[in-house]
Amino acid sequence: MAFFRNLLKPSYSSSFSCSNSYSVLNKSKTPFSVSSQAPQIYSSFSLFSTQVTQYAGLHPTKPVEKPRVVVLGSGWAGCRLIKDIDTKMYDVVCISPRNHMVFTPLLASTCVGTLEFRSVAEPIGRIQPAISKEPGSYYFLANCTSVDTDNHTVHCETVTDGSDSLEPWKFKVAYDKLVVASGAQASTFGIRGVQEHAIFLREVHHAQEIRRKLLLNLMLSDVPGVSEDEKKRLLHCVVVGGGPTGVEFSGELSDFIKNDVRQRYAHVKDYIHVTLIEANEILSSFDDRLRHYAMRQLTKSGVRLVRGIVKDVQPEKLILSDGSEVPYGLLVWSTGVGPSPFVRNLELPKSPGGRIGIDDWLRVPSVQDVFAIGDCAGFLESTGKPVLPALAQVAERQGKYLASLLNRIGKAGGGHANNAKDVDLGDPFVYKHLGQMATIGRYKALVDLRQSKEAKGLSLKGFPSWFIWRSAYLTRVISWRNRFYVAINWLTTFVFGRDISRI
Amino acid sequence: MAFFRNLLKPSYSSSFSCSNSYSVLNKSKTPFSVSSQAPQIYSSFSLFSTQVTQYAGLHPTKPVEKPRVVVLGSGWAGCRLIKDIDTKMYDVVCISPRNHMVFTPLLASTCVGTLEFRSVAEPIGRIQPAISKEPGSYYFLANCTSVDTDNHTVHCETVTDGSDSLEPWKFKVAYDKLVVASGAQASTFGIRGVQEHAIFLREVHHAQEIRRKLLLNLMLSDVPGVSEDEKKRLLHCVVVGGGPTGVEFSGELSDFIKNDVRQRYAHVKDYIHVTLIEANEILSSFDDRLRHYAMRQLTKSGVRLVRGIVKDVQPEKLILSDGSEVPYGLLVWSTGVGPSPFVRNLELPKSPGGRIGIDDWLRVPSVQDVFAIGDCAGFLESTGKPVLPALAQVAERQGKYLASLLNRIGKAGGGHANNAKDVDLGDPFVYKHLGQMATIGRYKALVDLRQSKEAKGLSLKGFPSWFIWRSAYLTRVISWRNRFYVAINWLTTFVFGRDISRI
Fold first, then answer.
1. Among the four A26, A80, B59, B133, which has the fewest Cβ within 10 Å?
2. Contacts of B204 in chain A (CB under 8 A)
């Protein structure tokens, strides 16, 4: 079968090796195959294990085969690249612990049931059908543990949570071109207790956790035996971080309270409150008029805006730097992002701020055939360009640019490893800020279409911008299926109210 | 505030008692209030604790107040009763660890993504709006731990999974009428390993677990390092139990394989298989012709039918009584049901089979004001009637009957505790089997409209019955919102294929 051609073939008879692998799997839970091919791929295996273990994986491609682009990550940057790359020219291998892209601008809406989780998730296989069907293209549910740039190989480990019969195992993938798009992680600023007690808002499982906890607190606060103070604490929702994510979530929450809690949890509707804590200015990257509008609207809808710095987080309250205590039942942490441990451990030059350093063409210039895009990448100081903000539109634009650059390289015959040294790369990547949008509750949003904070330009607020916001989102990278579902979700929420099953 | 009128009021000043309760909550995680009222309610407290702890709860109702019906459970029986009871006459308190009803006939479809989980769940608050809004009606997220029939009180404990800041606590609810509708649990027949390694198919979280595991196995089987045997094992889905649930799930799974796996997991589509294991005959309660049709269709769609008895379940294989081993990657257990530990521990007379014994009017005849319906209840031997099968339509019919009986009692002035002794109860409950339906994959179903196995009557198969099946389900107790969503889900599955995000 053609699609096995790159998998390491066992050198024993197939029945023996199968049972050998199977029995080894049973004993040690680490499947491996013995290979007689391409010994040079294992020169680095001693870096990973003192055992004489050889990992399975994908071979380097032969000159007659399609070159292979390996993409680490399944976010805005990686998925845009996967979508736009020419799969007649390249095989694509996507390696990520998450098999879908999350449409992050709509994530806050899923926490309270305005939208369903599935409506904001787009499976990789639908973004790039070749991954589902083509013999040489794959999606691997795994994390990359390290990159061997000399040997053009990434080392990976599978994700097996949810399986009680499988331990994770390691494998390797040889690449012709590597694109690191592994994203960033939420910053906790070293504050104790954040990881244990707060919930971030970057993934669908965060949104699910928030939703379940909110509904649990609403139900428990109605059970006999809860004191007044406990009721108020349980139903106090605190959001830390006044950027678009925190503001959007506060807006959704206050809308949920005004409409659905009033009807469906009438017994406790007077106890539930929302507080938004920000160290500086909320929505600091937006136009001043829009910011003041947002603050007025949030305050009008019942959100308490507090300027403060969180110093300590405990199971039932947080402590601000001025010593005041804030009891909470639900704590959502939506401050900025920073480099992940994977990025920090990569032995590649870094940009200011610790991201993977890239040049004007989004390459990692110190090695061959490695690129980086999205939140994990930043211009090297030597380029003279500032590190771009960690925004979805930056990531998406970089993914689009890099796909066309790789297609260009492939057309010029530079697709295979170490072949792109003399290819004309064309124009460097230039980011033009198209403005930004944020929603602040039902029917209200901000649309800031200026190219920078200082520039003049169109900025809208209120219902017209809410309408623009909704339309713009619906036209982005989401599939028709999800566009349909998002529209249906919005319609049913409008007609029937949000769903409150604690699932 | 009127809705506090039945809650125990602390006898101290409110600030002292609040802080007292709060500080006690902090220390011992057990909130309680000191009460100066109704000491007789606590005569039984010593049964529950050697501490001098008094639980909070709902008082017995006063003669001028509405009598209170307490319903344990949120399944077919309990929800139908809650829906039909006259809330102008009664306050309704529903106590259940689950805040929604599960539309079980459609549950199998959610495992593979034909339908979304939320489309088959109906929140209690929407089934009976009085629970959300009326001061004296409640839904409590809790389990009933015991029933004190002499004092007309149920003792409960909250469910706090998902909260890291709250321990469960106890409370009591006094009832005028008690309806036990707590359902049954899946039978494991004492077979070792079932609880640990198999997944049942009765709740939404079971369906979620099945779906995640199925997608995990599909993705992992494509990663380098998996031997042929491992791939086959991982992708071998075994269903134990040939009743409607098992057959429907096998049918859905084989449809998923033929359509979605073929397109979206093309690399491994030849490895995935389904085996249905049944000890006797599949669909034994259906007409013979329909049974043979079902077996032919299942076999044609690739399901392997095996007659066997499972003797032992291990993490990666199960052992049949004839000694043969069946390796599996996903094991779904959908055999019969039996009495739950709660029912077994109730000190009330039992029916044959161990359910709560009821008379012709669904009362527990040995005590006052206690009724039982659904899977947890069975006719006492003295009635001469056989225990009814554990079917949704039996439960629903009993819920409907009992609601009208309670309404009748209430109208005759017998609503309050111990007041119903002389009320004329009218006709006893009679169950008339309206036939049954089962689906066996895309566009095929069985509709057996005979009243019993021996009777003659209409029995249909194939596409016409599939259409009837779909229409009939859409007209049942589901709300308009979920009818809409179910129809939308079916439409999008037909147009776009199933969703495969591993969420």
1. A26
2. 501, 503
Looking at beta carbons, which residues of chain A come within 8 Å of B37? none
Q: How many contacts does A have with B, using Cβ atoms within 8 A? A: 237
Buried b (16+ CB within 10 A) or exposed e, A106-130: bbbbbbbbbbbbbbbbbbbbbbbeb
- The two structure tokens encoding residue B420: 């119903």
Distance CA A498, CA A121 (A): 19
Tell whether A34 is within 8 A of chain B (Cβ): no
Number of CB atoms found within 10 A of residue A494's CB: 10
- Asked if A19 lies within 8 A of B229 by C-beta distance, the reply is yes
> Picking from A145-154, A165-174, A234-243, B92-101, which range would have the lowest pLDDT averaged per residue?
A165-174
Q: Hey, what amino acid is at B458? A: L
Burial code of B161-190, b = ≥16 C-beta within 10 A, e = fewer? eebebbebbbbbbbbbbbbbbbbbbbbbee
Q: ipTM score of the complex?
A: 0.76
Would the CB atoms of A22 and B267 count as touching at under 8 Å? no
Token look-up 């599955």 returns B493
Indicate the burial class of A302 (C-beta count within 10 angstroms; 0-12, 13-18, 19 or more): middle
A100 → chain B, closest CA residue: B501
Give the three-state DSSP class for B74. Answer: coil
3-state percent breakdown (helix, strand, coil) of chain A, nearest 5: 35, 20, 45
Q: Where are the alpha helices (DSSP H) in A163-227?
A: 194-197, 204-220
B314 contacts chain A (CB < 8 A) = no
C-alpha span between B231 and A7 (Å, rounded):
14
In terms of pLDDT, which residue wins out, B422 or B38?
A: B422
Q: What is the DSSP letter of B428?
A: P
Which amino acid belongs to residue A97? P
- Can you tell me whether residue A437 is helix, strand or coil? strand
3-state secondary structure of B255: helix
| Global pTM value | 0.80
- φ/ψ region of B382 (left if φ > 0, alpha if ψ in -120 to 50, else beta) reads alpha
Asked whether residue B1 carries a pLDDT value surpassing 60, the answer given is no
CA B309/CA B168 separation, integer angstroms: 40
> What are the tens digits of pLDDT across the range B155-186?
999 998 766 667 889 999 999 999 999 999 99
Element (H, E) at B273: strand B273-278
The sheet carrying B325-327 orders its strands as B310-313, B317-320, B325-327
Confidence of residue B118 (pLDDT cuts 50, 70, 90): confident
Q: Are strands B236-240 and B330-333 parallel, antiparallel or unpaired?
A: parallel
Q: What angle (nearest 5°) sits at the alpha carbon of residue A205, between those of residues B234 and A497?
A: 120
3-state helix, strand, coil in chain B (%, to 5): 35, 20, 40
Cα–Cα distances in angstroms (integers) from residue A284 to residues A251, A394, A454, in the given order: 17, 18, 13
Write the pLDDT tens digit of every residue in B424-453.
999 999 998 776 766 666 556 666 666 565
Confidence category of residue B32, pLDDT binned at 50, 70, 90: very low
Q: Is the pLDDT of residue B128 over 70?
A: yes
DSSP B35: B
- Whether pLDDT at A281 is above 80: yes
The CB density around residue B67, as the number of other CB atoms within 10 Å, is 23
Residue A111 vs residue B403, higher pLDDT:
B403
Q: How far apart are CA A195 and CA A461, in angstroms?
A: 35
> Mind spelling out the 3-state secondary structure of A160-178?
CCCCCCCCCCEEEEECCEE
Q: What pLDDT is recorded for position B54?
A: 58
Say yes or no for a CB contact (<8 Å) between A100 and B264: no
The DSSP 8-state label assigned to residue A500 in this structure reads: -
